Amino acid sequence: MIPAALEQISTNEAETEAFARDFARGGGAADVVCLRGGLGAGKSVFCRALIRCLCGLPDLEVPSPTFTLAQVYEGHPGQRFPIWHFDLYRLTSPEEIYEIGWEEALGQALVLIEWPERLGALLPSRRTDVTLTSVPGQANHRQIRIERHE
Questions:
Q1: Is the separation of the CB atoms in 125 and 132 below 8 Å?
Q2: What phi-psi label fits residue 98: left (phi over 0), alpha (psi between -120 and 50 degrees) or beta?
Q3: Considering the entire predicted model, what is its pTM?
Q4: Contact 6, 131 (CB under 8 A)
Q5: What's the angle, vertex CA 55, arms to CA 52 and CA 58, rounded to 5?
Q6: pLDDT tens track for 53-99
Q7: Which of 6, 12, 33, 37 yields a CA-CA distance of 20 to 30 A from 128?
């Protein structure tokens, strides 16, 4: 089980990926994980490593759903539940989420959300926030903070 709050400094992309794989082992169906951080903070890197780990395929192609808004992963060897990966950067109103499978995903899949602030009041209160921020003066370092909300 993930503690209520956890912080770690990642010094490179490989460490961010390793942290995401460790995090993946504590997640499950019906969990909502919100990834927060600016452009280039490492949200997609974190999601890619987590998805590959849970699908049991370290070389799985995991494109960013920036243009499709949602990508679904299911039926891979070792995968126990579906994974829905949402990238809401291009969402123009929170209600648009219903057009891309939101209700189908909630309650039956692990839901990963990049740019969750675009959901406004539709953001689930029971969720885990993963916030990635750059460390000043350290080009590739990221502070990763995980916080559970029950």
A1: no
A2: alpha
A3: 0.90
A4: no
A5: 35
A6: 999 999 999 988 888 899 999 988 778 899 999 999 999 999 999 99
A7: 12
What is the DSSP pairing of strand 110-114 with strand 32-36?
A: parallel
State pLDDT tens for residues 99-149. 999 999 998 899 999 999 999 999 999 999 999 999 999 988 999 999 999
Give me the torsion for CA of 35, 36, 38, 39, rounded to 10°: 10
Residues 6 or more apart from 69 whose CB is under 8 A from it? 86, 87, 88, 90, 91, 100
Nearest Cα neighbor of 49 from 74, 23, 21, 29 is: 21
Element at 14 (helix H, strand E): helix 13-24
